[in-house]
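Each field is set out as follows.
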Amino acid sequence: MQIHSHQEFDPRSNKPVEQGLRRVLDRLVSTMQRDALIRQTTNQLRESLQADRVILYYFYWQWQGQVTFESLSSDKYSILGSTGQDNCFTDEYAALYLAGRIRAIANIDQESLESCHREFLQSIQVRANLVVPILVPKGLWGLLVAHQCQAPRIWSQADIDLMQTAAKTLATDYNILGS
């Protein structure tokens, strides 16, 4: 027979409430740290690349997602909250990014693209883009994307390497792995 202290069974004890508050606080701190890292990463990338826009497209469901972070050279390029074209990001595209695909498009008007993809890019003022997957053990967490809106642009290997390094940094961060 095990004897427990009176305090363990005290109905006035706030232990469950305190534990719940601790979990909420830990989750909040983790979210704030994750958001700060993503914000810092997108800002540094945009400045280093001298791009018009760098975004994080986060997948919240099976190939459904939205732009959750952006760094802009001008507010006129804001697409925060954009979800993209319905049914344009297919399982085929997802499989390519899951395999580590990096897509550098110098000029969207001259690239072989699905019409829904080209129309979407045109609607958000994209002239050139660079897309790198953020791969976590669970799969495709998101896409890190640089946009050139003012003119076409040839992305250098250094640009691609920089984006890949940033994506790997995000993918290995504890606060992202846990989300």
